[in-house]
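User: Can you recover a sequence for this backbone? Please restate the input before giving your answer.

Assistant: Of course. Working from this structure:
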């Protein structure tokens, strides 16, 4: 699959890039995408939730009423979960939500996500570029020239570029990542996927096994 290369002004450069069909042309696997996104979100959970149970509530242990003759159920302490201010029965405790996935499945998930973007013509290839200085206006103009100002965009670079990253940081719906930071979740979350020429080369090499 050949795609035309654009510059940051949104104009064609006259060159094309070959998107490897083994990465961008496969039949997407929805279940692999689901599992990879689920793992990404689970691994990012802090898991620090905690509620006090009956034995952890700081309150009097005095029996609040006599055992019999009240016509109501027995009650031994205000710490009981049935009373307001009492402990919570089977409350949440700190835990890790992390789980592992097979490496091949994660590769398949990223390939499937990229294939969806290619199938829907949501991939834009840019020539390698950099900004002279950190300026949000530069990134705004870039998206305007590419006619994706209203889209959620993900720009994937082959290597870190501080000027480009910092120029996009204040914009909602604009994200910049390197190839090594690329996740299935970020690909699927974006509407427009921006790749540089060198990024395509790295992806073709990294995801073709």
């Amino acid at each position: 699959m050949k795609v035309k290369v654009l510059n940051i002004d949104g104009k064609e450069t006259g060159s094309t890039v070959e998107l490897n069909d083994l990465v961008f042309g496969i039949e997407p696997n929805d279940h692999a995408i689901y599992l990879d996104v689920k793992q990404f979100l689970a691994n990012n959970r802090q898991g620090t939730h905690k509620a006090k149970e009956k034995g952890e509530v700081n309150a009097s242990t005095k029996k609040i009423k006599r055992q019999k003759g009240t016509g109501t159920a027995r009650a031994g302490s205000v710490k009981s979960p049935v009373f307001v201010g009492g402990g919570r029965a089977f409350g949440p405790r700190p835990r890790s939500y992390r789980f592992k996935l097979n490496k091949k499945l994660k590769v398949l998930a990223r390939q499937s996500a990229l294939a969806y973007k290619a199938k829907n013509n949501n991939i834009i290839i840019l020539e390698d570029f950099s900004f002279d200085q950190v300026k949000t206006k530069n990134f705004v103009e870039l998206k305007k020239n590419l006619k994706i100002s209203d889209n959620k965009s993900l720009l994937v670079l082959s290597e870190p570029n501080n000027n480009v990253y910092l120029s996009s940081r204040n914009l909602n719906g604009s994200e910049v990542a390197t190839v090594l930071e690329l996740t299935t979740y970020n690909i699927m979350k974006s509407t427009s996927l921006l790749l540089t020429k060198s990024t395509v080369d790295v992806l073709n090499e990294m995801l073709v096994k």
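That completes the design. Residues 103-119 form the longest helix (17 residues).
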